[in-house]
Design goal:
This protein is α/β, with parallel strands linked by helices. It has helices at 2-11, 28-38, 42-56, 84-97, 233-242, 312-325, 336-340; strands spanning 65-75, 122-126, 139-143, 177-182, 195-198, 216-220, 354-356, 364-368, 374-379, 384-386, 393-399, 402-408. The protein is built from seven helices and twelve strands. It binds calcium ion (3 copies) and zinc ion (ZN).
Amino acid sequence: MRNFISFIILLLISVNLIAQNADHFCGHQHVMNKLDQINSAYKKEFLALTGEFKSNRISSEFGPCTVNVVVHVVYFNDEANVSDDQIFNQIDILNRRLNHLNNDTSLLRDQFLPITGNPSGIFFKLAEIDPQGNPTNGILRVPTNRDGFGSSNEFLSEGVKYTSEGGSSAWNPQRYLNIWVCDTKDETGMPTVAGYAIPPANLPNWPGGFEDIVDGVVIQWEFFGDDNDNLGKVTVHEVGHYFGLRHIWGDDLNCTGDDGINDTPSAADYSYFLCSQNSNTCEDNINGEDLFDMVENYMDYSFPGCQVAFTNDQNAFMNWVFENYRSQLCWDVTSIDNLKSQKLQLFPQPASTFINTGLIENKPFKIIDISGKIVHNGQLINGIITWNNLPNGLYLLNVGENNQRFIVINP
Ligand SMILES: [Ca+2]
Ligand SMILES: [Ca+2]
Ligand SMILES: [Ca+2]
Ligand SMILES: [Zn+2]
């Protein structure tokens, strides 16, 4: 093990080489493992979600709709204070690559043409209004005295999401896709990952216990934008995870692992950052064909230069997650007044430890039980109310002029 770790450290002496090492590439497995530790049903519930999609989906029809993005550039050295141009560039890459509008789709082999071409319908723009309703350019530049947010026993860099920990606190994750661009390096001086994503907290594959984990995307700063060997693909890959996608090889070393998506060919393993066109490690039947391992897919670990597509089903899955669980990310300046005066949209229901109001402003609230007694009050945080102990029952939530009933059932 020690030799292996030394090997990894040697391998990582050049930061560009992170992209050549699976453990240090995308933190998805670390995220999955962390969530599975907190809730052992996590992976099982994830499979239930993809099963629900498979049986209910007809086509991806939501949108097009534009996600409001806030980029937190949290920098220790000036070089990590990435330029506005690189930020604009990364947003453009997301728009193109999630909608099959990139100009390198000719790299797709013919056999993948029938399963690609549809857009996700998900577009991105830097936010123009902040959570207080003030104009913004959607970019927060935050100097920090922390030279890295990772640690060797905790691959994730969650501290970057909190101003109190030297990072930059999230804007309401119901209303904004938060992207943190930072240094994930640990005590050894090496970045722990190129990036990772936490999916939205109200996905059905995100059961109780995770409401304290702020969703969004974290990117090692050298990988942001296209002025690097990665060409902005890490962020595309992580936004894929953010909308619920998994790795196409199923995160195992055989053909059993399933990403839950019908039209992505299974693969025994990831593609070792190569672009090999002759690899067909698992037999599958996709529209009657046994397709090659799809190195062209953003959710593989293949050579970034050959990653040019999501499949139609991957795009439809992201669209379905967006429509059913994240449609509040999509709003524009003209609707800001509507958002401020909107009705409560309480979920999940029944609730057990928290409820999301869908509100954009952090207003005071009261929870009143059936006898008329106020049992909990305070201020909304990112539109969410949490509590320690509310007995099972029916409650009334009051926020300003709005009143709505909800049910609590403790598991
Ligand atoms: Ca598949
Ligand atoms: Ca596999
Ligand atoms: Ca195959
Ligand atoms: Zn990944």
